[in-house]
Design brief:
It contains ten helices and eleven strands. By secondary structure, the chain is of the alpha/beta class.
Amino acid sequence: MTKPSISLIVTNWNGYRLLKKNLETVIQRSPEVSEFIVTDDASTDRSLNYLSALKSRYPNLVVTKHKHNLGFGKNSNNAVKRAKGDYIVLLNNDIQPQPGYLKPAIKLLANPKTAAVGFSEVGNENWARIFWSGGYLQHAPGTPTLKPHPTAWVSGGGSIIKKDIFLKSGGFDSAYAPFYYEDADLGLRLWLAGYQLLWCPTSRIIHRHESTMSQFPPHFLNYVKERNRLLLTWRIINSPRLLSKNRLAIWLRVLGGPNYLKIIRAARLQMTAHPQPVFIRTLSSESLLAVLGS
């Protein structure tokens, strides 16, 4: 059997400081990877100059750049399409993997049903659990374990996924642009389509959460989070009973604070402007909750 090839993708936007701090460590600690791709999303800092200099020392480093900022999801989707590997490692630019982090994850992907494996953040070792509460799809960290565990999704900045399944699923949904919840949406769509996702406690990474998203004002980040939390519920849940509860919860939120109307309008606009990626559901949304809620 042919050994799967692996491409590693780092998305970047004005992350020169983080690239300089982490990228060489990523390359040196990923000997299984044949192609390293840094996909730059119209940076205006020194990122591209640094990457150009680094390419002279690492011939398997590929740099792609966009003239206009596309956001995390579309930037990642484009990079996956260009990648040559059978498996795709997705890393944020503020992550340092630990030695040997890929080997256990690659073994888990040998199962045809496993679409992706999430890495374990040192100091934040947990898998993703989902449940229904208060009229919304909710999430919380699962109890840490010493063995691989099913997870509702894998992080778009710390995971490995099969390229063919990623592309067949439509990749990250552009409705969530510029960021937040793309990886949750993709993971839940993969579960609904009949795949499984695993969290691997021995695939260890250090994530210092120094992401360039911190360049955005807090009120904008909160707005996008609220909009995309509502979008996730609408995109994933198709149970009439649960959607009825969601409608009631929405109007209670409006009565509590009319500003929530802006969130509703924004979510509806995204729903209209961005058709959901096509996939075949093999699970109902209520069955999904039963599988991933404990």
